[in-house]
Specification:
alpha+beta, Beta-galactosidase, Chain A, domain 5, Glycosyltransferase, Immunoglobulin-like, 3 domains, nine-stranded antiparallel β-sheet, seven-stranded antiparallel β-sheet, 41 strands
Length: 734
């Protein structure tokens, strides 16, 4: 087995000037450092790290024998400050943006002796464990180690900038399958640094050689990664408010959203559900396995669109279209080996909703035409999946349980959130069909969307209960399910069900029923015990975001802001836009396997843009609706680079006593947008209004617990709206 020629790796890693930045002294904090082709995950104390280069787990149980002191984390790097036998050691971790490679560097200002060890067993973990090879071959030569499994196209290569002072390689008898354990000693001279590059291929030696060639200048890769982050920050939405946590959380969220764009050779590129860190005592590799989940990908893509990160949503659409079944069904999950799984009732409506929202945000008819055959097939599949032409979709085996979480077993009752998804997707696709020049399809979509909404009202709403059923009755599963969960948020935030139809749930969500110590509960306090599984608590960040987003849709602004602010605090607390799983607000053993959820970053963005700002784009018609609901705790905020098609919009808000001032400007784009601006303010009556300094008579009306003041303007120059109100209130006092 031949060892390929290595680049020298002689140049030290330069400082990575990337923002945002977080410093941690608590080694228990988890991290995930990701590029398109791989990630490093673990805890900052280095108790157990993994390196995945899609689809292979190339390093497991990585351990540096040193005491953790401090870590500096950016979206592009992790720098750990360690103590090895009383000597200071600096460990740097770096993932190139587009290469299946990871780079480690160790340096010691005053010299030190350092021991490092890890296991390599390069094959995908569960659920692809059947792919584990019968044997693992390896060869060590000088400063390189190569390992190959049964598949001739697959290999893992480790290369050092110099040969370690001790370099032991042998079979790992403790591993569940074929694996090797690597142990090495580095005697670092004062000021010396040593680098390790780990890289892999599933496409043969030519691909491996291309990656090696790209590693000839690691500092250039570092600078490229920092430059990409700077361009991302400068081209996407920004937000500033009196509390700087809001801007910091948004900066982390945008960087993390970009990091979830993962590519696996032969499978495609899409948003993954997250990057897990190893659990203590878990099987090696199992916790960190990345997965392509349609549900997570679509909700995260909706947030990416709101942030102005259009490419991520386009990749999700292409990925799902690529793996669409001949029937038109969209898979609910796809493994790193490209095995697609079908059967969830919400996957195909989510795909259609994303297609519609992609058109609304971007106006990109080119991609929609590219995917149009897939979109039409998915639409026809949804129609065929219904028991009746106007009936909402049920929950087949492998579908979604209470609140939209993954369920087990068969439930043929119709599900409220799936029916709402379907109705919303059909309604929002009307504009796409019209833009595509298909008026007949647009008319059919409009008619079917109206029938779907009627079906939701007929099958789910109960006027006496002032709410709807989570699942309608009938079928083999029995009676309707009335448990009040955070899943009721979905029909509200999509606009598929009016807030007054779910009044009881809205009251619960706005009060303390869904509020835990630092989170939003999945099941209302005082209700029946939650079922086993994902519905047992609010540990999924998606649910907290849904509750906030729906609160804004229902006009419960203060409660919605409280829910969103908990997400913001958790995002900044972790310093990486991710948060852990705390069922019912308290940590439970075994819930920390996937602490880096894509939805955690997504739900920093989505309730802000869709909720607090009330953005409803229509790039296909050059229109935008903004329904800002300023928090009572803030007297100002500024939004920049809200992208709608080719346009970028800036919004400034200030409150002086009873006067609220909004200034809106379209800063880029050849065609001025037509803006419907509808501020929702904590007041009872409108006293006066001025548009561009001139008195205006506006038709104010109640909205939830606030007052909505609408105006239509064209953004052909900077526009201002001044609103004087009487009887200012707080939402909680209403």
């Amino acid at each position: 087995m031949q060892v390929p020629a290595l680049p020298t790796l002689a140049e030290p890693l330069p400082p990575i000037h990337a923002r945002p930045t977080a410093t941690h002294a608590d080694g228990r904090v988890p991290f995930a450092l990701a590029g398109r082709r791989g990630f490093i995950a673990g805890t900052l104390d280095g108790a157990a790290m993994e390196v995945w280069l899609h689809p292979l787990c190339v390093i497991r149980s990585l351990h540096t024998h040193a005491t953790f002191r401090e870590a500096i984390v950016t979206p592009a790097s992790v720098e750990r400050k360690l103590d090895a036998g009383g000597r200071a050691v600096v460990e740097k971790l770096f993932i190139p943006l587009d290469l299946p490679a990871a780079v480690f560097e160790w340096s010691a200002p005053d010299g030190a002796e350092l021991r490092v060890e890890w296991t390599t067993a390069p094959w995908p973990a569960s659920p692809d464990s059947a792919d584990a090879p019968a044997a693992l071959r390896w060869r060590r030569h000088g400063r390189a180690l190569i390992a190959r499994a049964d598949a001739p196209a697959e290999a893992v290569l480790f290369g050092f900038s110099r040969e370690p002072d001790a370099f032991e390689v042998g079979a790992d008898a403790a591993a569940a399958g074929p694996a090797i354990r690597v142990r090495l000693t580095l005697r670092l001279g004062p000021g010396e640094s040593v680098r390790l590059a780990a890289l892999s291929t599933t496409e043969g030696d030519d691909a491996l050689a291309a990656t090696l060639a790209a590693l000839r200048s690691v500092p250039a890769l570092v600078r490229a990664r920092a430059g990409a982050l700077a361009r991302l920050a400068a081209s996407t939405i920004s937000f500033s408010a009196p509390d700087p946590l809001a801007a910091e959380a948004l900066d982390w969220a945008k960087a993390r959203l970009d990091a979830y764009r993962a590519e696996t050779p032969g499978v495609g590129r899409s948003l993954v559900a997250g990057y897990g860190r190893p659990r203590s005592g878990a099987d090696d590799g199992e916790a960190g396995h990345p997965r392509y989940s349609t549900r997570d990908a679509v909700w995260t893509a909706l947030a990416s669109l709101a942030a102005g990160q259009f490419d991520a949503a386009a990749e999700v659409l292409r990925f799902l279209g690529r793996h669409q079944a001949p029937s038109g069904a969209i898979p609910h999950a796809c493994t790193a080996r490209g095995v697609a799984h079908y059967g969830a009732a919400d996957s195909t409506p989510l795909y259609l909703l994303l297609a519609a929202r992609y058109g609304a945000w971007t106006g990109d008819l080119g991609l929609l035409r590219e995917q149009w055959t897939c979109i039409l097939a998915a639409f026809r599949f949804c129609l065929g999946a219904d028991a009746a032409a106007d009936g909402p979709t049920g929950d087949p085996a492998g579908g979604r349980g209470r609140g939209g979480a993954a369920g087990s077993g068969h439930d043929d009752r119709a599900a409220l959130h799936v029916a709402a998804l379907r109705a919303a997707a059909l309604a929002e696709l009307v504009a796409v069909a019209e833009a595509m020049g298909d008026p007949a399809l647009a008319a059919e979509l409009r008619e079917r969307a109206a029938r779907a909404r009627d079906a939701v009202e007929r099958r789910f709403h109960d006027a006496a209960r002032r709410t709807g059923a989570l699942h309608s009755g009938g079928g083999t599963a029995g009676a309707a399910d009335w448990m009040q969960t955070a899943g009721y948020a979905v029909p509200l935030l999509l606009g598929a069900v009016p807030a007054e139809r779910l009044h009881a749930w809205v009251d619960l969500a706005a009060a303390d029923g869904f509020t835990a110590h630092r989170d939003v509960r999945m099941i209302a306090a005082g209700g029946p015990d939650a079922p086993a599984g994902d519905d047992s608590g609010a540990w999924q960040p998606l649910h907290a975001g849904w509750a906030s987003w729906a609160g804004y849709a229902a006009g419960r602004s203060d409660a919605a802001f409280r829910h969103w602010w908990r997400i913001v605090e958790r995002a900044v607390e972790r310093g990486e836009g991710a948060r852990g799983g705390d069922p019912q607000g308290a940590r439970q053993p075994g819930t920390d396997a996937h602490t880096d959820h894509a939805s955690a970053a997504g739900m920093v963005v989505a309730p802000l843009v869709y909720g607090l700002l009330g953005a409803e784009p229509d790039a296909l018609r050059h229109r935008l609706r903004l329904r800002p609901q300023p928090p009572t705790a803030w007297d100002r905020f500024v939004v920049e680079r809200l992208r709608v098609g080719d346009a970028e919009v800036a919004l400034r808000y200030r409150r002086d006593g009873a006067r609220h001032t909004f200034v809106v400007e379209q800063t880029t784009g050849p065609v001025p947008l037509r803006l419907v601006l509808e501020p929702v303010l904590p007041a009872r009556r409108l006293a006066a209004a001025r548009v561009d300094g001139r008195d205006a008579k506006l038709d104010a009306r109640p909205f939830g617990e606030r007052l909505l003041v609408p105006v239509q303007i064209v953004l052909d120059h900077e526009r201002s709206l001044e609103i004087d109100v009487e009887d200012a209130t707080t939402d909680d006092a209403a």
